[in-house]
# Entry
Amino acid sequence: MFVSVVVEPGSDGRLEEIDALLEQYGFKEIQKGLWESTSIMEKYLSRLKRDIDRKTDSYDKVRMYQYPLDNDLAITSLIQKRWKRILVKP
# Structure
């Protein structure tokens, strides 16, 4: 599964914490605030979201692009400490 994570932190310190977390999950930094993985399994994504939620506050924004998820593109956003998902069908 391909997963891309975009991080817009409220502070530089928070960016370092989230970057370290994504690195632990095997993500590679493509550019500042943009991480990608082609090998993460779906069962680890819920744990990753929970860990990101613990490291963020309401000023941070995180967006995940996940493909394929039942042949759809899933876009999941964390805005003001709430996760929301949109499924894009082919």
